[in-house]
Every structure is written in C-alpha cells, then in structure tokens.
Write a structure and sequence with these properties.
The protein is an alpha/beta fold and 832 residues long. Helices cover 52% and strands 7% of the residues. The chain folds into five domains: 3-261, no CATH class; 277-373, Helicase, Ruva Protein, domain 3 (Orthogonal Bundle), CATH 1.10.8; 389-485, no CATH class; 527-711, no CATH class; 724-832, no CATH class. It is elongated.
Amino acid sequence: MTPDEAVEALTDPTAPYLIGVRHHAPSLAAALPELLDAAKPEVVLVELPADLQQWLPWLAHPDTRAPVALAAVPATSGGDGAGDGRGPAFYPFADFSPELVALRWAARHGIPVIACDLPLSDPARHEPRRPGGAGHEAPGLREALTARLTGRPGEDLWDRLVESAAPGSPPEALRRAALLTGWALRHDAERAGAVTESDLARERWMRARIEEATAAGRRAAVVVGAFHTPALLGTGTGPVPPADELPGGPAWTVSLIPYTYPLLDERSGYPAGIRDPEWQHLVLEAAGRPAAIDEALLTTAVRICGELRAQDHPSGPADAREIVRLAGDLARLRGLPAPGRGELIEAVQTVLAQGEPLGRGRAVARSLERVLVGTRSGRPAPAAPRSGLAPAVEDEVAALGLPGPADTGPAARDLRLDPLRSDLDRRRELLLRRLTVCGIPYATSTPVTGAGAGEAVTTRWEVRWTPATAAMLTAAGIRGVTPAQAAEGLLRERRRAEQDDGGPTAAQSIGGLAEAAACGLPALADERLTELGEGVPATGTLPQLLAALELLDRVRAGHVAGLGPDPARAARSAAVGELLTSAAVRQVDGLTGSDDPDDARALLELAHRADVFGGIRLADALTRLAADGSPLMSAAAGAVRVLLGHEDAHAFGIRTASWVDAATDAATRTALTARLTGLLTAAGPLLETMAPVLDPVLDRVTDLGDTAFLDRLPALRGGFDTLSPASRDRLLTAVEDRLGDAGSRVTDTDGIDPAALALWTRADLAARQTLDRLGLLPPALPAAPDVRGPSATPPHHRDDRPGQPSPALQAEPTTPDPTGTPPHAPGRPPAS
C-alpha cells in the first residue's frame, strides 16, 4: 500500500472517524474541537484502559484544572506493584493533551465517551515486550523521512512532520498528516518485527469496542495513538469478550492526582513523553496562527535572556532579537510556516551559549529549563472522590498497626523494628523509610549501635501522626499515589537534577544507592549500583570509597531490608566492591600530605579489608606513606603497619618516643601533636593491644624534667584530644594498671581543672627559680612536686567524680582563680 492509498483508507467516510494523535500534541489539541465539530460523532472512543472509565467524567469536569494525572496500581501489590511484577500505570494530562480535549468536548456536547483500550487487569497487557515477528534490516520510511529533515541526533519525526508544519494549516490537513505519520511508523515497525504481542492484544480489544459502538449505526470518533490507527481498519480476529466482562486478574486502584509541568517534562524520570511543556502550552494558545507563534517566540526569548541575567551573565534585548531572527531564518530555510521548538533551541544555543559547553553554556541550559518547562500545577475538581497518596498511606498505616489520623495525641510512639527477621517489621520499615524520603513529618529515626564493632540489625523510630503529616501527604501526592511510587519519583527527580548539574558526585551516588535500597526500589537501586561502579572509583575520596564498600557489604549480604538477598545483585556488588577496593588502595598514596584525622581512620578501616582485596599493594603503599607522609599520616601508617604485623611494635614504640624528645620548638611541638593524633586515631580503639608502642612514650614523658614537660604539655594534650571519652577511659585504666597504687593517687585532682594546675605549676617553678637566683630561697622550703607524678601522662588528669572523662586530655582550659592564688590541692604546697 502506498502512502496515498493508506491515507485514503484511514480517512474513508464510511469508516469510523479516526484521529491519530500523540499523547501530548499541542497543535493537534488546538485543532481537535473543530475536527469533532465537523465529524458530529454520536460516541467518542479514547485510548485509555477500560479500568479508568469511571474517572473520565472527573477528568472532563469544568473544575478540574490541568495538569492532572490518573495513576493506577495493582490492588494486590501492597501499593508498589511488586506483588505480581506489574509496575504502576501513569497517565498524565495537560491542556495540550488531545485525549483531554476530546473528553472536554464530549462533556460540553453531552456525547458519551468510552475508554476503549485493553484493561490494566488483562494479563496480556503486561506480557514481556517480545516482537511479534521476524525483522528486516533494510532502511524504512522513517529513515527516508528523517534524512530529509535537519539530521539532528534523535530527530523527533512527529514534531517535524506534524507540529512544525501545523501553523496556518486547516484542521483536516493536520489530521491527515498525523495519520500518515502514524502509518509510516507502523509500516516500519511491522517490517522490523517490532510490533509487540501486547500491542496486538490491545488493538484487537480496541477493534471490538469500535464494532460494538458502531453496531447500532452510531457515528463514532476514535482518538487513539497514530501508531495504532492502521490496525483499527480491519475486523477483530478471534473472540473478544464484551466490554462489560473485564478479563480476570488483580483489580487496580485508580487515583486522580494533581500534577506539575516539571513532572510532565520527560526528563523528570516520569513516563510523560513530552519536553518543555510550557512551550507546548504556548503553542496550544497560539491555535495554529503563525503570527501568534512568532509572538510567543519573542516573549520566550526575552524571558530566557532575563533568566540568564539573573545568573549574572550579560544578556539583553539585542540577544532576544537575534534569537528571534535566527529562529525565523532556520524555519524559512526548512520550509516551515513558523519556528518550532527545535529552531528556538538551536537559536538560543547559537546566540547565547557561544559554543561554550560549560560555564555560560550550563547557565543557558538552566535558563532554557526554567522558561520552557515552566512551573504550572493543577488540581482535581474539589468534589472528585478522595484519592491519591493520603488515603493509600492511611490504609497502609492501619494495616500495619501504626498511628493514623485518629491517633493525634502529643505522645510519640516508640518502635524498635527487626526488619531482617520479621515480615511485619520489614513492611513497617519500608513505609517509614519512604515517608521520610518524601519529607513527610511522621517518623524520626534514632541511631542504634551494634554490639562491639558489629552492624546493628534493628532500627528505632518515633512515630506520630500530626496535622503536618496530612498536609505534606497532599503535597507529596504529585509524585505518586503510593509511598513507593512517591519515593521513587522524588529520588529519580533528585538524580536527574544531579545529572543536570554535571554529577552525580561520589557522595551523591553512594547516598542515592543507600536511599533507593532502604526504600525497597530495586530498579533504581540497580541503576545506582551501576553508577557506583562507573564513577566512584575515579572520583571518590578514601572515606567515600570505604563508605561505599560498607554499603555494598550490606547489599551483598542481604542485610538491607528493602532489597533482601539476590544472587545476581550480590555478584554485581562483589564486582563493584573489587573495583572500589582497588581504587581505595590507590588512594593511599594520595594521603601523603593530609592532615585530616578522618583519613587516618579510613586508613585503619582499609587495613581491615587487606585480606580481601589489596594485599601486597596496600603493604607497599603503607611503607611509602610511613616514610614520606605528613606527620599525622606517617604516624597513622606506622600504627597500621604494626597492627597488620608489617613492623615490630617495640621498634615503632622507640621511634614514637623520639617524637617527644624532638619537640623542642613550636614547629616540632606542632608536629608532635599531629603525630600523636595520627597514632591514636589509628590505634586508639586498640589501646589494650598497643602497649609495646605506647609504653616507650609514657616512659619518655615520665623522664622529662618539669620545664620540658610543661613546654610539651599543650602538644601532648592536643594529640590525646582525638580520643573519644571511652578511649580515654581505657587509656586511663591502662595507665593505672601499669602504675598500680601510685596511679590512683596522682589522678585525684579534687576537681581542679588540669589546665589551671599546669598554669599554677609553671608559676611556682618560675617563682622558685627567681628566689633561687636572688639567694632568697628558704632552705626549709620543700622542693616543688613533680607535676607528672609517676605517670607518663599529665598530672591530676582525672577528678574523683565517677563517670567523668579524663581532664588532662581535655582541650578546653578553665579560667583560673582571678586572684591568682591556687587552692591547696592534696600533696601540694601553697604557691610560693
């Protein structure tokens, strides 16, 4: 069949009045009322699943403001489509959606409307998308048509052949162009064997509905996707059940929800299928008049330049005029009656981006997005049945025994969940995680620490239903009608924003995988896992790489409640983990100049993985870091080498003691603080096993004279500040055990701040030296006490109050008595 014969058959007056559309086509939407007025149908059939029939009057209701969306989920899937492998179905509508225009026209004229597509409950609709026949490799009509267009990658055939040619064309010519475009796409799909079994099943159902509607001689108008129109000319093959006998299968829960233009844009991650909805809205308002489109083009160019100026990039009226001129020239060169979206974007890129992909180019892209995507939002009619996310969440919290709208008391309910062992707790955990991601104020998570160094298997939550919960559920409903759908919509929107900003960064990839896994979104988690293996090894810092490895360990072991065990995912996680570990070992050489204690902690954690990956490469990197690293990283590398058995502990301890001896001026004392910080950061959790390393340091401090000790005291205290209170207590216990009874005596400071003690002791020593120089030192005056006592750590470093951390290791000094007269401490003489 030739194209002319195809168009004649599709527009045959004796056949049903076919209007082939794309689901968001502004030019065709503007012409549709005139087409229907001319056709005078007695019934209108629209390509929507039969399950949505009862919602059609609410879509066409005069109080419904577009954009809105019909969202459907299987009733047996627990709200996320996971129960039977069927995902949610989503049907967004804008003012420029031909289906919505047809529904509104029929409502105004009192014409019945039939949702004529295969029901969502029919299993045939959800079969895998296998082609229906053998394919052919020869170029088809699509390639021939595309070759005559601009040649841009991803050329939009519909936009070139229908939308761009629409201004000034009569509605019937536009209808014929749309039908011809649909026939060309169908012809190529049939030659390539790309028509799926589900498409064939849907078309059989639609043909049967058309035959039923026209059986009584009624004139029917059929508004369907242009791709399907050639298949609707024949008669149905095989028995098809009546429309009132829906196929067996799980029922679907349908909701009418508000929507926004940013979500309607196909780059948002939703199946909207249109780009730049605000521009499409302007084309609809132009109603096919070339002069009105030129005016919309000028207004849009001025707004784009204004947005660019708002980002501190120069742009003025001359740029706007040049954009309009260049877009018009492109349209004339291509034989178009008016510039379209493609000409506008090419003109903006040429005039404003100036060939710069980064910097100004990104600012231009942001300006285009803000102006062409828009911010319009819609709402269902106020009288429409209540639906959407709020009732879904209310039903789910009731089924899970969680606080709901009736539980609005001031007290929060405390939950401790074990999602890896209890199915009920797993379902509760998923709901709470999804609501938290959506920003709904309902649940607050409290960290739970595992026993020892182990991973916590329980989670703790405080949950409370408040008026803010109900309000935010309504706001979050634009992203989905179930908690899973809303959470996935938000996370995909966030991922798209990261990509638009040139990311995602390593931190964003790791956080994205963690959130997708915790929310039980396997498809998004798999995408983030792939992203993790591609970008993070090259861009992540060592702490980020180790955080990613820890997350992968949990995913591989099935310890993420939202995902559970999966052999295929575990294998992929292991492969990505090997890449990350190799990258982490390579990062060790990059720590040479670091002064960040977090890098020292990361070095210790990496050492724990040495037996899995890394091996000899890590040992070599640690040797280089210990020799050439900054004071902090050199000490940390040495401690890790001792822990791994690569260096003798006593030899390293002797070298550590030399740091104290070398701290004779400001620079070397600063280095001493950094070295002690690195040593204790890496070895602090293992103080009990590090006695051969720490004992020489303690002995050396004990042997120092009073003045030398006081000179080094700030540096020593600064090094010990890196320890946690628990580690300080363990260190104090180790010192007391080493000193016996003497250790307990010197730790009694009677509540006096150790910084004040050091200040007073320095004053005592200075006074004694002055009196001695003047020959005024009384012979009976006892010698000044050893400010260190027998301990190698600073004196009086713990008061006698139980549960107090070691004051000698505290960084913040206390202001001494303003009189300068120290109190009488036990075993201490009055000030000289």
